[in-house]
Task: inverse folding
């Protein structure tokens, strides 16, 4: 199994930096967990913004834009936000006032950080798109 070398042994070759590049401390590792996102709230407009961003992503919906745009804007974004907001409200983390995906992703990042240990060397965080 590969072992992580101590921070002191890794020094990048300065020849590959631009001439005006500042001196950078090396040896830390960053792990970033990413998710597509979660709504800011369960109200109509928060859900509409979330659905619009999610369903406008070409990696999520692989239908040609000319065909998808009218469906999304004329049907889905007028009808679905209210219904989906009510659904989200049943699973919403009211204690932290956030969507369940954010709560779950934060928990995963915290557990991963605890599992890898060594917070001086390895930093684990999460982000929503």
Result:
């Amino acid at each position: 199994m590969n072992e992580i070398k101590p921070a002191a042994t890794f020094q990048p070759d300065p020849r590959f930096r631009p001439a005006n590049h500042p001196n950078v401390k090396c040896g830390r590792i960053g792990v970033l967990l990413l998710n597509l996102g979660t709504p800011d709230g369960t109200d109509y407009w928060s859900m509409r913004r979330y659905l619009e961003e999610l369903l406008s992503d070409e990696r999520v919906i692989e239908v040609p834009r000319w065909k998808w745009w009218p469906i999304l804007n004329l049907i889905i974004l007028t009808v679905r936000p209210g219904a989906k907001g009510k659904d989200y409200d049943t699973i919403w983390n009211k204690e932290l006032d956030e969507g369940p995906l954010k709560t779950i992703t934060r928990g995963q990042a915290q557990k991963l950080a605890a599992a890898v240990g060594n917070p001086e060397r390895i930093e684990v965080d999460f982000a929503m798109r």
Observations:
- Residues 1-38+99-129 form one domain.
